[in-house]
Amino acid sequence: MERRWVATIDLETLEVEHDPTFKFKCLENCGKCCYELEIPIRDEDIARIEELGYSAWEFVDYDKMFYRGDKFLSYALKKRPFDGGCVFLDPETMRCKIYDHRPLACRLYPFVFVKHGKKMEIYVKRDSFCPGIDHPEGEPVTGEFLLREYGDVIEEYRRKVVKSRE
User: Fold this and answer.
1) What are 105-154's pLDDT values in tens digits?
2) What is the chain's alpha carbon radius of gyration, rounded to the nearest angstrom?
3) Does residue 33 form part of some domain?
4) Other CB atoms within 10 A of residue 2 CB
5) In 85-140, beta strands by DSSP E
6) 48-57 per-position pLDDT tens digit
7) Which domain holds residue 53?
């Protein structure tokens, strides 16, 4: 996978180095990622969505699986058979029905977070079809942007860094 570096965040100090030429804006009612991608869904995502009253059989595609080498990672989020959209995407409004509880992969897209020791590198795929990448109205992926949009994810990784030192 060819990637473009966007930023690096130090998980101890929260200092961020970023590409000042890269901008991003998630476009309202776009939903392109909800049609184009196969979304991995973690056990934590499944549990969180089940708490909303959904059965895993309604939204987990047990026929599609993600692997890294021989290691099973996760199943995929189910797609609607009639149009290929995510089962949680409202086709009329193009809004996610579980937006505040959506899977981690949905929350992170189009970014890929890669942890290297006490640093987190953030990339986008070069072949990404996301129209929000380098959008003229987008904003740079600064420390402020990262903490606002992904603060809980960054905090989870920070806790792991601290635990690994103990």
Assistant:
1) 999 999 999 988 889 999 998 767 899 999 999 999 999 999 999 998 88
2) 17
3) no
4) 7
5) 89-90, 95-96, 111-116, 119-125, 139-140
6) 999 999 999 9
7) 38-103
Which positions ≥6 away from 108 have C-beta within 8 Å? 150, 153
Same domain, 42 and 94: yes
Domain boundary among the residues 80, 103, 126 is at 103
In the predicted structure, residue 162 carries a pLDDT above the cut 90: no
Cβ pair 82, 119 in contact under 8 A: no
| Per-residue pLDDT reduced to its tens digit, 66-118 | 998 999 989 999 999 999 999 999 989 999 999 999 999 999 999 999 988 88
Q: What is the pTM of this model?
A: 0.83
Report which residue type is found at 142. Answer: T
Which residue has tokens 């059989």? 57
Dist CA 96 CA 85 (whole Å): 11
> Using CA atoms, how far apart are residues 84 and 92, in angstroms rounded to an integer?
14
